[in-house]
Amino acid sequence: MPITDAEKQIRFRKKEALKRDSENIFRQLQLSMGFHKPQKSPQEIRYAVDQAIELPSGWTDEDIVRAQQKLTQILHDIISMPDELKNDVDEGTNSSLRFRTTPDPTGFLKEEKLALEKTRALASHLISALNLSNCSDAEKAAAIMEAVRTVGRAVANQKEIPRSAATVVCLASLGPHYERPKWFAKRLAKTLVNQLDVKLSGEVGKLLVDQNLSHFSNDEDLS
């Protein structure tokens, strides 16, 4: 059933309001760069904001609400969240302990800065490749997980396995025939608690205690 001109006007105003919200968020993020030092370029922020307000054909009010939620999430991720990439690099290289024991603090800091810059560049290339691909979000997730498993296999076979949230997730993606270090379970639990709220992490913990997940035969068992 075709919509009336009045309904078209209402839809137009809702879409324009969403666009104004996105511009406000973008400006807030640009202004915050000098204070919070978000580790994303203006181009990356612009892309994320534009993607958040991209509505499907025949969009509904639910799609508008979902887009607004995405904008709020982007703002929170960039302004409020810690620099997780830096944390992973520092943890993975045992940066704090090495700094306290190095005979050359200046040289050590230069090496750490270079390591972080190289990691950010690699992350940026990976994200750009995802953005330029014609894959769906599910397909992108599958591709990234294959990369995670590839890194996980390499990490698992190291004599001394780097301990960080990033490496523990890579190790968690591997099958049960891989050995994990003694600290794995505790570090994985800490990572989940940090990323999930109390209620959800409690639900996951209860399932792990009460259920043998390998006995789940299909997706319906996880509903």
Task: Summarize it.
The protein is 71% helix and 0% strand. With 223 residues, it is mainly α.
Feature tags:
223 residues, mainly alpha, 0% strand, globular
Low-confidence stretches: none
Based on CA atoms alone, the radius of gyration comes out at: 22 Å
Biggest beta sheet summary: none
End-to-end separation? 36 Å
Quote the average pLDDT.
Answer: 86
- The secondary-structure element order is HHHHHHHHHH
Number of strands: 0
**What best-fitting shape do the alpha-carbon axes yield?**
globular
Helix fraction, binned, reads over 70%
Structural class: mainly alpha
**Assembly context of the chains:** single chain
Task: Note the beta-strand portion.
Answer: under 5%
Count of alpha and pi helical runs? 10
Please describe what this structure looks like.
The chain is mainly α and 223 residues long. The chain contains ten helices and no strands. Helix 7 packs across helix 8.
SSE topology sketch:
Blueprint: H1 5-36, H2 42-52, H3 61-79, H4 84-92, H5 95-101, H6 105-132, H7 137-156, H8 165-172, H9 184-195, H10 198-210
Helix pairs in contact: 1-2, 1-3, 4-6, 5-6, 7-8, 8-9
